[in-house]
Amino acid sequence: MKVQHEDYYMTDKIISALEKKIAADQAELERLKGITGARDKVEALASDLGYTMQELYPDAPTTRAKSTKPRKPRTPPMYRNIHDGRKTWSGKGDKPQWVIDVGADLELHRVK
Questions:
Q1: Nearest 5 degrees, angle CA 91-CA 95-CA 100?
Q2: Residue 69 to residues 48, 63, 66, 72, 75: CA-CA distances in angstroms?
Q3: At residue 28, does pLDDT exceed 90?
Q4: How high is the pLDDT of residue 19?
Q5: DSSP secondary-structure letter at 89?
Q6: Which of 5, 51, 54, 70 yields a CA-CA distance of 20 to 30 A from 78?
Q7: What are φ and ψ of residue 15, in 5° steps?
Q8: Whole-angstrom Cα distance, residue 101 to residue 96?
Q9: How far apart are alpha carbons 1 and 15 in whole angstroms?
Q10: Is residue 75 within 8 Å of residue 90, measured between CB atoms?
Q11: Bigger pLDDT: 4 or 77?
């Protein structure tokens, strides 16, 4: 079976692979829902007995570990829109629309 949609075709192989992926994802979602339900029950039981999860499992992580990689410092702006001082550009990456509109007069906007 081929499904035609304007300029592309989906073959049986692609459809079958997508259906398998969807089924696997749904099974994983159900598994995670079960884990969440079990955790909620354990927390409720511990609470009924007067304990916290941290007291019962002191070595268990309470939250996801944060990255130890330091963040890059923000690049200071090299250009500022003289008509609207809130709009700036560091000179890196894609040019914002206000820089494109300024065109050749960009040096007038350089931050000193």
A1: 120
A2: 40, 18, 9, 9, 18
A3: yes
A4: 93
A5: E
A6: 70
A7: -60, -45
A8: 9
A9: 9
A10: yes
A11: 77
Cα–Cα distance between 78 and 100 in angstroms, integer?
15
Residue the block writes with tokens 């560091």: 90
Q: How far is CA 77 from CA 74, 91, 97, in A?
A: 9, 7, 15
Q: What is the longest distance spanned by two Cα atoms in the chain? A: 73
**What is the distance between the alpha carbons of residues 79 and 104, in angstroms, rounded to a whole number?**
13
Does the predicted model carry a pTM greater than 0.85? no
Q: Which two tokens stand for residue 89?
A: 């550009």
Helices and strands in the chain, H and E counts: 3, 4
At residue 74 the predicted structure's pLDDT band, cuts being 50, 70 and 90, is confident
Mean pLDDT of the chain: 84
How much is the average pLDDT of 43-50?
91
